[in-house]
Amino acid sequence: MKTLDREVLKKVIPLQDRLESGHRSCRGCVAVPLAARHVLRAIEGPVVVACATGCMEVTTSIYPETSWNVPWIHNTFENVAATLSGVEASYNVLKKKGKISKETTFVAFGGDGGTYDIGLQSLSGMLERGHNILYVCYDNEGYMNTGNQRSSATPQGAITTTTPAGKKVPGKKRRRKDLTEVVAGHDIEYVAQSNIAYQQDVYNKVKKALTYKGPKFINIYAPCILGWKVQSDMGLEVARLATESHFWPLYEVEQGQYKMTYKPEKQASFDEYLKLQGRFKHLAKPENKKLVQEMKDNIDQKYQYLFKKCDCLGAE
Ligand SMILES: Cc1ncc(C[n+]2csc(CCOP(=O)(O)OP(=O)(O)O)c2C)c(N)n1
Ligand code: SF4
Ligand SMILES: [Mg+2]
Fold first, then answer.
1. Is 144's C-beta closer than 6 angstroms to any atom of ligand 1?
2. 297: CB partners within 8 A, 6+ apart
3. CATH of the domain at 238
4. FRET pair for 54, CA 20 to 30 Å: which of 30, 82, 219, 283?
5. What domain count does the chain have?
């Protein structure tokens, strides 16, 4: 697991977590608390956080309690980017009038459902209007707080309650949407793909994103123990294998320039990644061999394509 470099650790350990303990995410959940903490640790000074409805929101803010010790705004499933756009615009007006002087960072968190699907329109608007906001998607590949329904981020072959596997259907039929690329198409200053198992990578990307005034987007791979049917101490290992097997490459697009931020020395086994997750259990059956091969071919094809677009000399 890639934790923070020693020098960075010394800096962040004394900091108070901006998402406190005592939240109600599932035992072993690596999606919600780690995504929030890894991101917020990299931000200095005042911060305003907004969450779309999703696990991060419902497990941290059940009335009358909250685990957030920063200004925090609840949103519906679809409009976190729009709400925070309004907050950032008001802040700019108040600053102009001299009523606020502190530099403040605005961070929106949305799950994949709230980002890839139902909040895509408000995200796209926020990016195009140029708000000075960092949008972070914690991608746990499904609608998890409502009981594990598929989203457009759910990978091909995965079982969810709305994509069951049986004699005729092998789990989700369609491939996942590549949202990082969709966002990159908005031609903003900074877009990146990261993974909660690579803490230093998340840290670096947040730091770099915040050097830009304007919209920036980071898509963080964040396994759901419950929905993916993963042993409660294996969430980070599954996340790690996603990147090491080339399924979830770590890269950034800075001012239009693609760069791999981590290049695994040797491609890890995708079968190993599948084996750790109950949602893919049925893929071990002989009749699904062809589908698994198709999934692997797709990973290799996409990785090669991305690699070509990247400045490979910049890879770790
Ligand atoms: C318009 C609307 N449709 C459906 C819902 C119910 N709902 C709330 S959160 C959610 C799924 C959230 O999925 P995601 O954004 O991936 O977050 P996760 O729970 O996986 O963390 C759904 C279906 C809603 N609140 N509003
Ligand atoms: S349902 Fe999944 S993402 Fe949500 S709190 Fe539980 S383990 Fe975490
Ligand atoms: Mg989700």
1. yes
2. none
3. 3.40.50.970
4. 283
5. 1
